[in-house]
Specification:
The protein is mostly beta strands. The chain has one domain: Porin (Beta Barrel), CATH 2.40.160. Strands 1-2-3-4-5-6-7-8-9-10-11 form an eleven-stranded mixed β-barrel. It is globular, with a radius of gyration of 20 Å. It starts with a helix and ends in an 8-residue tail after the last strand. This is DUF2490 domain-containing protein.
Length: about 220
């Protein structure tokens, strides 16, 4: 009987822990991305992401990112940038004293090519992460690679998919993997909207996320 009680206790504890992660709950990421062209060779990246453990609430993360892009040519872009990330790592909605704050510097290189109607984009990114957990701070480094494929369906509609792997440069090498698929629509010549699904895989745990992303790429160059 004691063994049975112990087994049931461990099982209940395990189920409770699993629920605390929010793994079985659909979350949502609401995002904005902008590439603001300021000259023939330079543009400014602007980005804001608001991530939730549930589709309509339960805050998980806010990410604000900017950077300076150098357009080597139409198919190659180099970027140096900065990001600020505020994260609540607990599924339950606690007060902000459990939040971590991160200042991040990143370097990025994008290569584009076309095969038939398919548009390919290779994104290579290095990140230096300075994280404040409240009780202690930590510095981490990681590399990321994303392969993205876009297929135009019409002049207005398209589909987009990517897979991105995160590699830690300390401790365990594998960080996470993101698999994404979305339908998109061109709203205007320089803006579009994507609605899709993201499978965010970590070691031993997976999260399902609805993604809604607005892209706005204005040309801010002075007209001659």
């Amino acid at each position: 009987m004691k063994r049975l009680i112990l087994a049931l206790t461990l099982l209940c504890s395990g189920l409770s822990l699993a629920q605390e992660t929010g793994e079985d709950t659909w979350g949502a990421w609401y995002m904005y991305f902008g590439m603001n062209q300021v000259s023939d060779k330079l543009s400014i990246h602007s980005e804001a992401q608001f991530r939730y453990y549930e589709t309509q609430g339960n805050f998980n993360q806010m990410l604000l990112r900017t950077g300076l892009n150098y357009h080597i040519n139409s198919d190659a872009i180099a970027t140096l940038g900065y990001a600020y990330i505020l994260t609540d790592n607990t599924f339950e909605e606690f007060s902000g004293d459990r939040d971590s704050r991160e200042n991040r510097i990143f370097q990025q290189f994008i290569l584009k090519n076309k095969v038939g109607e398919f548009l390919f984009e290779h994104r290579y990114r290095m990140e230096q992460r300075f994280i404040n957990f409240g009780d202690f701070t930590d510095t981490q480094h990681r590399a990321r690679y994303r392969l993205q494929v876009t297929l135009p369906l019409t002049d207005t509609f398209f589909v987009n998919a990517y897979d991105e792997i995160f590699i830690n440069l300390q401790d365990d090498a594998f960080g996470q993997n993101r698999l994404y698929f979305a339908f998109g629509v061109h709203i205007t010549e320089n803006s579009s909207l994507q609605v899709g699904y993201l499978k965010n895989h970590f070691s031993g745990i997976d999260f399902d996320r609805l993604q809604v992303a607005l892209f706005f790429n204005p040309d801010l160059r002075k007209k001659k």
